[in-house]
């Protein structure tokens, strides 16, 4: 049974969503503020954190940041009424894996939760990827080269892992979008190329590693 730490300060909404998730077979621990959420996380690590952004005592962005200080693997899904792109981008940079805009349908939330927890379970199998002169730690989201270590965002680490696991093969752009951005084309159209550029810079010390943009198709990682 998937253990969900659900954080929502509006009591009536929290009760409705909790009951709905439990009816779909999830175990739900509902907290109404960020401080209680962190305490619950420290007491027992959940399988996923479903996190409102605007909350008293400690907002969702701060909660996510604190969680990522100690754990880089647990999926974090934001529930947010904020619609500005910069707010969404901020959430991802803090380590969020996905977001759902309010108001939402419970069926959409269930699908997102199932996708994130399934993906995390699959990732637990392989911890290290040896990419040329680099070592990617998929659990800590770190990229090491000699004594130098770079901290990646969860999405950067996941994208690099996917490219490496499909080495010498093209990974379709649509496949990446569906896997890591849930087909949110407004956001991904602006950001996917930026993520690829960042990853190229992280790998720049090993000239054998190349990430090629196959125009109109996707990306391919090769190591000469």
UniProtKB/TrEMBL annotation:
Entries under InterPro entries matching the protein: CheY-like_superfamily, OmpR/PhoB-type_DNA-bd, Sig_transdc_resp-reg_C-effctor, Sig_transdc_resp-reg_receiver, WalR-like, WH-like_DNA-bd_sf
Keywords attached to this entry: DNA-binding, Phosphoprotein, Two-component regulatory system
GO BP terms in the entry: regulation of DNA-templated transcription
Classification via Gene3D superfamilies: 3.40.50.2300, 6.10.250.690, Winged helix-like DNA-binding domain superfamily/Winged helix DNA-binding domain
GO terms of molecular function: phosphorelay response regulator activity; transcription cis-regulatory region binding
GO CC annotation: cytosol; protein-DNA complex
One Pfam family recorded for the sequence: Trans_reg_C
Entries under PROSITE patterns matching the protein: OMPR_PHOB, RESPONSE_REGULATORY
Name recorded for this polypeptide: DNA-binding response regulator, OmpR family, contains REC and winged-helix (WHTH) domain
Organism of provenance: Sphingobacterium psychroaquaticum
């Amino acid at each position: 049974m998937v253990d969900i730490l659900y954080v929502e300060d509006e009591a009536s909404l929290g009760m409705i969503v909790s009951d709905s998730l439990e009816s779909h077979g999830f175990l739900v621990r509902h907290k109404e503020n960020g401080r209680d959420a962190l305490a619950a996380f420290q007491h027992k690590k959940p399988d996923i954190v479903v996190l409102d952004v605007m909350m008293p005592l400690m907002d969702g962005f701060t909660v996510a940041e604190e969680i990522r200080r100690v754990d880089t693997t647990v999926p974090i899904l934001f529930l947010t009424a904020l619609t500005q792109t910069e707010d969404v981008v901020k959430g991802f940079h803090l380590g969020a894996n996905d977001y759902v805009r309010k108001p939402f349908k419970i069926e959409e939330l269930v699908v997102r939760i199932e996708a994130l927890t399934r993906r995390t379970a699959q990732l637990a199998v392989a911890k290290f990827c040896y990419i040329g002169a680099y070592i990617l730690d998929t659990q800590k989201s770190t990229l090491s080269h000699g004594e130098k270590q770079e901290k990646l965002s969860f999405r950067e680490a996941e994208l690099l892992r996917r490219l490496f696991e499909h080495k010498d093969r093209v990974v379709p752009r649509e496949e990446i979008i569906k896997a890591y951005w849930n087909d949110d084309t407004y956001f991904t159209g602006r950001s996917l190329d930026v993520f690829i550029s960042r990853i190229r810079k992280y790998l720049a010390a090993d000239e054998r590693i190349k990430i090629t943009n196959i125009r109109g198709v996707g990306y391919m990682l090769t190591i000469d």
